[in-house]
Amino acid sequence: MKRTILLLLSLAMLSVASGMLLSKASWIGRVGMTFFYKEYNLLKIWWQGAIAVYIVLLLLFALHAFLQRVLRPVAARLMHIAGLLIAIMCLYLTYDDFTNNLSHRLLGWRFHYGFYLGWAGWILICLFYVFKKRSTTTIVTSSDKTVITEQ
Length: 151
Hints:
Blueprint: H1 2-22, H2 27-35, H3 46-70, H4 73-100, H5 102-105, H6 109-130, E1 137-141, E2 146-150
Antiparallel strand pairs: 1-2
Helix pairs in contact: 1-3, 1-6, 3-4, 3-6, 4-6
């Protein structure tokens, strides 16, 4: 439980940093968001971008927690590793897009790092569940009491 809280706090700090970097788009990028790409206007205000990133990371965390709870241990670990590989692939494709697409390149390096931090958050979630040990519940009953322990 302590590790989960620590991860959620780390994701919150990562989201704040990501939101701040996303709001630091270059001047030409901000003009493009204002006039042409209006759906990205929420990224111009740091706290709105941070909330958007955190909500996405929380949804991914909930998805991985669901998979961890529902699937058998080996299948769950394979799903988390698949998620890790997808996140790394998406990080690379985002980098490739930002370096080869002129309109995205004009947004500036700080804006790019904001997106990279979002992918890093998903990578952290996947690593958290890949290395997490499943808790086992042991129920010991005797004639006068029942003891439940979690490991």
